[in-house]
Amino acid sequence: MLTLIIYDITEDDVRSKVADFLRGKGLKRIQKSAFIGDLSSSQKRDIEAGLRQLVKGVRANVQIFPLTPASYNMRTVIGVELHYDDGGYVL
Predict the structure, then answer these.
(1) Terminus-to-terminus CA distance in the chain, angstroms?
(2) Whole-Å CA distances, 31 to 4, 7, 49, 84
(3) In the chain, at which residue ranges do the beta strands (DSSP E only) sit?
(4) Which of 37, 73, 82, 91 has its CB 3.0 to 4.6 Å from that of 27, i.e. a possible disulfide?
(5) Could you give the count of Cα atoms lying within 13 Å of 19 in the half-sphere of its Cβ?
């Protein structure tokens, strides 16, 4: 399922580790603190467990949203669509 992960983490090193972790799991960065990707149930559980470990004891808020392709395509982008990493996520 298409999955959006957003986060707000106060510590720079933990925030960087989270971004590297998500990138390493094959998700694409769509904003500075937002990643998206197509995940199986087991991949989602694996990512959830990894994120729990990474932010344990740190002031952090991580949110994971399942999306349908239709809901993603109905999004509104205001301004220019910025591309991060290797070009962002395009459906």
Answers:
(1) 13
(2) 11, 10, 22, 7
(3) 2-9, 28-31, 34-38, 60-67
(4) 37
(5) 16
pLDDT in tens, 23-42: 999 999 999 999 999 999 99
Domain ranges for the chain = 2-73
| Percentage of residues of the chain with pLDDT beyond 90 | 82
Q: Mind listing the pLDDT tens digit for each residue in 10-25? A: 999 999 999 999 999 9
2-73 folds as: Alpha-Beta Plaits (3.30.70)
Q: Is the dihedral of CA 66, 70, 74, 77 positive or negative?
A: positive
Task: Say if residues 15 and 68 touch (Cβ distance below 8 Å).
Answer: no
Which residue spans within 16-79 are E strands per DSSP?
28-31, 34-38, 60-67
> From the centroid of its chain, how far is CA 57?
20
